[in-house]
Amino acid sequence: MSIIYAIDIAGTFAFAISGALVAIRKKFDVFGVLIIAFVTAVGGGMTRDVLINAHPINWIGDINYIWTILTAVVVTFLFRSKIAPLRKTMFLFDTIGISVFTLIGVQKGLSFDLHPFVALVMGMSSAVMGGVIRDVLTNEIPLIFHREIYASACLAGGMVYLLLHSFNINEDFLFVISAAIIVTVRTIAVQYKLELPRIKKDVFGK
């Protein structure tokens, strides 16, 4: 098992837990919790694979994703009172997860001979679409639209990856550097409560 694959599985586990916690707070039944955990964990990769016509779709081609999500749901049910307060730990896993998902998405886009800009979009989709689907299904405004520098961190790391990739740098080193950029940008943004500018209502005369 490669380090990147192991981190991918860990990120899937963390995303599934975050989805399950949201569903439990919304008082969904067991099936609802499982569905929200599932779409949060693999929704981004699945969206990417559908858009670029990649088969088999990520979780269909690797049963380990299913077992990881089921395990995460069981762990959440059994230990939710202890998991919920561990925000720093979950934030770390979530941030590592989006960094890996972004770069895996970019890599997959490039492997399908997509334009680098399109590959970058596929990377961001891999990282954020699971959370967007989760928020829509749970009747929340998606996080990327109103809080934190989230997708922008993925964009920054993905751009660094594409830039360094053109210089034929060692792939593992390239992956680590680009992932570190995403983790650093998001961590700093959250630490100092940085946000993108918002459009004021009075611009539209309201």
From TrEMBL:
InterPro entries from the UniProt entry: Gly_transporter
Keyword flag Nucleotide-binding: no
GO CC terms: plasma membrane
A Pfam family the protein falls into: Gly_transporter
Subcellular location: Cell membrane
Keyword annotations of the record: Cell membrane, Membrane, Transmembrane, Transmembrane helix
Annotated ranges, domain Glycine transporter: 6-80, 92-165
TM segment ranges: 6-23, 30-47, 59-79, 91-110, 116-137, 149-167, 173-192
Superkingdom per UniProt: Bacteria
Topology in the lipid bilayer: Multi-pass membrane protein
Protein family per UniProt: Belongs to the UPF0126 family.
PANTHER family named in the record: INNER MEMBRANE PROTEIN, UPF0126 INNER MEMBRANE PROTEIN YADS-RELATED
Name of protein: Putative membrane protein YeiH
Species whose genome carries this gene: Tenacibaculum lutimaris
